[in-house]
Amino acid sequence: MTYTGYLELEASERYGKSVLSDAYYNGVFKISRPTYTEEGLPLVQLIHVGGGYVDGDTYFTQINVKKNAKLAVTTQASTKVYKTPNKQVEQRIVYKLDEQSELHIKQDPLIAYRDARFLQETDVYMDKSAVFFLTDIVTPGWSKEGDLFPYTLVSSKVKVYQNHKLTVYDHLRLNPQDDVNKLFYLEGNTHIGSLFFIHPKVTDEWIEELREHLSSFEEVQYGVSLLAVPGCCFRILAKRTALIEKVFDAIEAFIHRSITHQRAISWRK
């Protein structure tokens, strides 16, 4: 199959240091040269040179993090999905984490414009000793008619397999025809953020401490669920991207202060 954008990355540990050991990309996908945080974490930016996702586009990304290696990945800019009158945009993402590895993914918002249809499937295959962090934001694009939700469909599935067993399944499906403003859906909000954090040290007590830490954020609505494995999933509703990003930053800072005892990652965005 020929993809509009294709990307494979691999991070490995060499002489006690995490490095980007392999990279292949084709089509509209590119990557930046890796930079390193103060803690020696390689940081890579994913780049889309096509300007946006359009009718019938297909994308594939796979990131492998080998034993004892660490990697941080972010995007250069927001992902824009434009009108798809004939066929939806489809994106498949695979993350593989070996023993004692870490993968941190922080994405810019997905912006869905009028008549856009976007389907994404993310599969995570990880060892029970690995650490996984992922953020995602969905926002409506500008519409000259002033519609709050001009897109047709946004669907994002996340499956996490730990030691070859399916342990997490999450499906975010936004269909404006279902009236996303109604109670128990977006409840008048327009932006939705998701955050997944899987770490052996996540407990009920830790989540309660995090809830207390987030109690000052009154302009957003959020919920947090403990997963079937040590980890949690956050869902955040707001009317602006910046509000969700502030909550994400607060969660990330709390994670690093309470669990890793290091500074939060400097994403340099």
Structural class: mainly beta
State the end-to-end CA separation. Answer: 33 Å
Total beta-strand segments = 18
Helical content stands at 10-25%
Radius of gyration: 18 Å
Based on Cα principal axes, name the global outline: globular
Largest sheet: 11 strands, mixed
Strand content: over 45%
Structural write-up:
With 269 residues, this protein is mainly beta. It contains two helices and 18 strands. It has helices at residues 204-213, 241-260, and strands at residues 5-14, 17-27, 29-31, 35-36, 42-48, 58-65, 70-75, 79-81, 89-97, 102-106, 110-112, 117-126, 131-140, 153-162, 165-174, 191-198, 221-226, 231-238. A hairpin with a 2-residue loop joins strand 1 (5-14) and strand 2. It is globular.
Topology, element by element:
Elements: E1 5-14, E2 17-27, E3 29-31, E4 35-36, E5 42-48, E6 58-65, E7 70-75, E8 79-81, E9 89-97, E10 102-106, E11 110-112, E12 117-126, E13 131-140, E14 153-162, E15 165-174, E16 191-198, H1 204-213, E17 221-226, E18 231-238, H2 241-260
Parallel strand pairs: 1-6, 5-7, 6-9, 7-10, 8-11, 9-12, 10-13, 11-13, 12-14
Antiparallel strand pairs: 1-2, 3-5, 4-5, 13-16, 14-15, 16-18, 17-18
Brief descriptors of the model:
11-stranded mixed beta sheet, 7-stranded mixed beta sheet, 269 residues, globular
